[in-house]
Every structure is written in structure tokens, then in C-alpha cells.
Amino acid sequence: MKISHRQNVVRAAIQASGKAPRLSCCCRLSELMPLVRQMHDDARAQAEARQEQAAQRAA
User: In angstroms, how far is the first alpha carbon of the chain from the final one?
Assistant: First the structure.
């Protein structure tokens, strides 16, 4: 996966608008899916752990 900074962004415009510069990504969806799946699994595990802790406190 290749991520590159757009070089055509004028720095004065960035400072005036307060917005961050954009990034362009040259990758395929198939390259991103394992990352998305891992993030989803991590979030699910954290949510389940919070639910178990809440259930233990309630008991």
C-alpha cells in the first residue's frame, strides 16, 4: 500500500483554513480489508470486555 502526500497543496491556504493536508492512497480494497477486519475484531473484543465487566459489577 502506498500513501503519498499531495504536493500541490499551498501552505498558506492550509494555515488560513486550519485544515490538515489531504493524503492520496494508491491501494486496492483487498489490501485494506485485513486492516479493517483487524480493527473491527479489536473493537468487538473491547466492547465484549466492557459488557462483561458491567455484568460482573451488576451481579
Answer: 47
